[in-house]
Amino acid sequence: MGLETNSRIYAGNLRLKSISEARLVIDDYKMIIGKRRHCVNEANEQVYYLENDKQQEIEITFRVHMMV
Known about the structure:
two-stranded antiparallel sheet, 4-stranded antiparallel beta sheet, mainly beta
């Protein structure tokens, strides 16, 4: 996995520094149009902290949704 932007390159030799604790995220919102007006999404979220060879850090957030 890698990411290249105009200012930095996060590819190749990425090193995992740490991983956050998994946490439950609940999104509760109302739709303006659609089959359902009131929506609720639940997901587990975890953040991975990595750095490249130049000690530039990047955080990648993964959110895994559960089927309700």
